[in-house]
Amino acid sequence: MRKQTFYQKTRLNNGSTLGVIKIPGAFPVTISAYIKAGFRHDPSNRPGLAHFTEHMLFNGTKNYPSSALLSQSINQHGGWHDAFTWIEYQRHMIHLPKLQLKKGIEILFETLVNPIINNEGLEQEKGVVKEEILKRRENPETAIWDFAWNPLFFKGTCLSHPCTGVEKDVKNISTRDVGNFISDHFLADSTVFIVAGDVDLESSVKLFDEYSTIYNRKSFLHSQNEVSNSGERVKVNFIDSDQTAIMFGVKTIPYAHQDRHVLDFITDCLGGYFGARLPQRLRDEGGLIYNWNMWQDNLDETGYLFFSASASKENQYKITSLVKEEFEKLSNKKLSDSDMKLAKGHITGSLISNMETVTDFARWYGFQESMRGKSISPNEQENMYKKISSQEVFEVASKYFQKNNFYIAAIGPTDAEKLGKSLEEK
């Protein structure tokens, strides 16, 4: 049975948005904060600072003065504490049994307002982040972002560096840098709080307002780093290995653009499942790849849609040609009724079947509220997908799936000139 949920939001006394998703009968609660403090906000001389600051918030607080005491305050109730930094935002999340809602809210505010930032903790965390950097570099599926796609698509902007920074960047970070980043970006009116579980708006507001008075810094007039993509369309990072990791993408649109939902549909149709066009062509029929990823990411002012996979040296150029061919098919011919039925069935079915836990609902509404200040329900999104026509798919694909809008990033034993030629093939 599909869970019946009720979403309401309000403004807290400190100026933050609070969204509450009531899920009757749910035993746990997920409490989260979405803060406009992603790595697009890194100072130009401190790449990786947003991500590093996220790490520092787990090192202890005024009332929980060590990382062990902080984690145990949640673990003793069977809960977990997690955080994530991406381009636009940081997400800090605590998951606990419903009876510990107040404790979870208190701990969340503690980490945002009273983190311990000292030299001892700083140097320890530098070691942790260095290991994360090395791990990302050794994994082609993450290295391609840091050293190929981001440097290509965001060349000359703050997003052209790895979200973690590199070793020398982390080495230069000071306690003052972390403190200043928190003061500048952990702001009440730039934060969305979300609670999901068997909770109601009125009682949640009372609990949040009890603690939100200590989280009351307001935005001041300052510009966020602007991002855009460069004119280059191919970026290669040569590494002598057995496989090449490849990302084939197109520039799309900002998050608020009306074409986003149709592009979601196109993304799913091309690579969202085993029977989708690209996996069918490359894996099931061609035996050219093992796994793949297909995604659309939309920022405040731009966006991109991509297909990624790893392939042997001898197959990589064939793959890029086939991916380009499948992209162009959607802009040259409308999908058949049977193709539309399959695609709609998958995208709507996977949307609803993946909305299962309180954390799923917290992420659904938190991301939307952070990006736009408003949201739609999963059911509303489902209905929007159902109404998409083959003509809309054709028109939107024709806008973006053009030869002069294709980008290729690769890391491995590859050749930029050969990849570039695959973009020009008819």
Automatic annotation (TrEMBL):
<dbReference type="Pfam" id="PF00675">
    <property type="entry name" value="Peptidase_M16"/>
</dbReference>
<protein>
    <recommendedName>
        <fullName>Peptidase M16</fullName>
    </recommendedName>
</protein>
<dbReference type="InterPro" id="IPR011249">
    <property type="entry name" value="Metalloenz_LuxS/M16"/>
</dbReference>
<dbReference type="GO" id="GO:0046872">
    <property type="term" value="F:metal ion binding"/>
</dbReference>
<dbReference type="Pfam" id="PF05193">
    <property type="entry name" value="Peptidase_M16_C"/>
</dbReference>
<dbReference type="InterPro" id="IPR011765">
    <property type="entry name" value="Pept_M16_N"/>
</dbReference>
<dbReference type="InterPro" id="IPR050361">
    <property type="entry name" value="MPP/UQCRC_Complex"/>
</dbReference>
<comment type="similarity">
    <text>Belongs to the peptidase M16 family.</text>
</comment>
<feature type="domain" description="Peptidase M16 N-terminal">
    <location>
        <begin position="29"/>
        <end position="143"/>
    </location>
</feature>
<feature type="domain" description="Peptidase M16 C-terminal">
    <location>
        <begin position="173"/>
        <end position="344"/>
    </location>
</feature>
<dbReference type="InterPro" id="IPR007863">
    <property type="entry name" value="Peptidase_M16_C"/>
</dbReference>
